[in-house]
Design brief:
Distance between the termini: 106 Å
Largest sheet: 9 strands, mixed
Length: about 450
Amino acid sequence: MTALLTTALLVPLIAPTAAVAQPAALTIDSYVLPPGAATPALQHLRSPQEAAALDRQADQSAAEGIRSPQELVGPAASYAPRAAQPSAVAPPQRPALSAAAISYPEPAHTMTAEECRAGLGTDNKFYVKSRFAVCSGAAFTQRWSRNRQIVGESQFVVLAVGTIAKSSRDMKVQYYFTNMQQTGTTGTGALMITPKITVPQKWPASAQVTQGGSIPGPQSWQVLAAQNPATFLHSVSVSTGQGTGVDDLVFAVYQPTIELTPPPGWEMQGALKGDLFFLAPRWDTATYVTRAGAAVFSYLATLQYSSNVSAPEKAVADHIKTAYTKPATTNPTNAAKKLPGQSADNPLHRLFHDKTRREKNRSEAIRNCRQYWGTNYAAGGKECDEFPFAVTYEGCAQALAAYEPSKPKNNYSVLPLPKADNGAAGTLLAGFLLKNRLVDGQDDAFIVQIT
């Protein structure tokens, strides 16, 4: 009894073992979102519901992965699955025209960061201003936590603006680091941001790419933010004589990627890098476009015709509009008629090198005009107008045995129209093909829009 009591009294006199301080768990949740995506304020992020909503938004964006814009044409379109949503596309340019001065406008060859940002809007990942000016972008958001409690937030947006000067073989890409914001407690002073640029695929693969400009190495969020905005220029070119076919065609995929490295002591989870939508330049030496070779972006072009009462091509525009909206009412008769040229999944393709086929397209159109309106169809100053155009593979001769007999028969429309309107439409079409560098074949395409 005495021994037990003595032991009990000694227990409180033994000093307790000193507690060992555990280091705080520092984590960063990293997200890649569309460049205009709104992110919750810090106080809202601390709400489980708001944090979960951001997680869902990022998961949806990440699940899409690398995508080809819907408007992409040529072999680069096979590089990745097609995007579910169309890209943002600027309306075609159209100046005031008169019968005395008919000229298709020069496409845009420049784009500012502000135009890119406005074009991308809140949820677009790619913007096509023209076939010579495109951009992609992404927003990078970091959620900073200490012991699973959100303590800060940071964000930055990267824009990649690609432009090609008139008659140039240089594709230039201007990069902007913008919208750099932070709140709460973060470690952005040592959050490293590294741009990586690759050309992962070319057609043909043997073509050699020449790169210019500069790609900076890793820089901290704080260093980039201080430049307001940070920017750099990179360029890519391909010399002539390396392509395929008579037009010396070279296609490429240009992929910008942003990599993130967390500060020492912080563990980053989620997106450790983000791929912007890739750019798809094309080089050619099509002498029927310009004497010297040049570059363009491989995106669908849109020819705009106007049915406005003052438009010199009004009659042709009305004809195409009817062919699109009421195809069964047009000649030649075909109850199942559905004309191409209305959408990206069924566009028109320029026909140049096969002069005989172009002439056959035209003669088939005239044969139908005579069949339906008689041999005097041209009386009163008219001409036989055909759609799709005779300068496309989809023209009136497409389904003939000599060309593509598997295609639907009579899938076109002819109509006698005033010579002046037909001539104005032809002038606009020729200027459109020239200024947009449309080349012969299935690797380039365009659609027609009636306003």
